[in-house]
């Protein structure tokens, strides 16, 4: 007997959480000495997954949205656009390495307040590294 569809969806959601959690862990390792990290791995479709705030004043400095490997970049950017346009902090879109160029071209059309960082994956589907452009 096959497993119910609901169970299959739950397993898929857990794998996404695992990828997002591994990306958040890498970001935390890189920036926790300078920023307070607020993690939202299961955030709504329109809100960031990570917020970096000033440690002293607790004001948002950066936020980060995570694009999953199987997600459509154009659709996700449409969902994030309202939040991005209303907030003044710098935004990062964290994308799989193979989607970096397409996302960067889409972001150029949206706002100058968005940077794109890429991540690479390990064989187990978790993030291996996150590469930020040091402009």
Summarize the helix and strand pattern as letters: HEEEHEHEE
Per DSSP E runs of 2 or more residues, the count of β-strands stands at 6
Portion of residues in beta strands equals 25-35%
Give helix % range: 25-40%
Rg, nearest Å: 15 Å
Q: Which oligomeric form is depicted?
A: single chain
What strand order characterises the main sheet? 1-2-3-4-5-6
Low-confidence stretches: 3-14
What does this structure look like?
This protein has three helices and six strands; from the N terminus they run αβββαβαββ. With 135 residues, it is of the alpha/beta class. Helix 2 (73-86) packs parallel to helix 3 (100-110). Helices cover 39% and strands 27% of the residues. A six-stranded mixed beta sheet has the order 1-2-3-4-5-6. A hairpin with a 5-residue loop joins strand 5 and strand 6 (127-131). The chain starts with a helix and ends with a strand. The model is unreliable at 3-14 (pLDDT under 50).
């Amino acid at each position: 007997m096959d497993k119910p569809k609901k169970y299959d969806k739950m397993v898929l959601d857990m794998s996404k959480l695992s990828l997002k959690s591994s990306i958040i862990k890498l970001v935390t390792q890189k920036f926790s000495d300078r920023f307070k990290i607020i993690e939202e791995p299961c955030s709504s479709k329109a809100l960031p997954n990570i917020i970096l705030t000033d440690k002293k004043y607790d004001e948002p400095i950066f936020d980060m949205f995570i694009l999953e490997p199987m997600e459509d970049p154009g659709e996700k950017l449409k969902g994030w656009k309202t939040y991005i346009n209303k907030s003044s902090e710098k935004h990062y879109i964290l994308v799989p390495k193979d989607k970096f160029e397409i996302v960067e071209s889409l972001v150029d059309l949206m706002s100058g307040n968005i940077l794109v960082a890429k991540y690479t994956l390990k064989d187990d589907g978790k993030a291996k590294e996150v590469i930020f452009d040091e402009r």
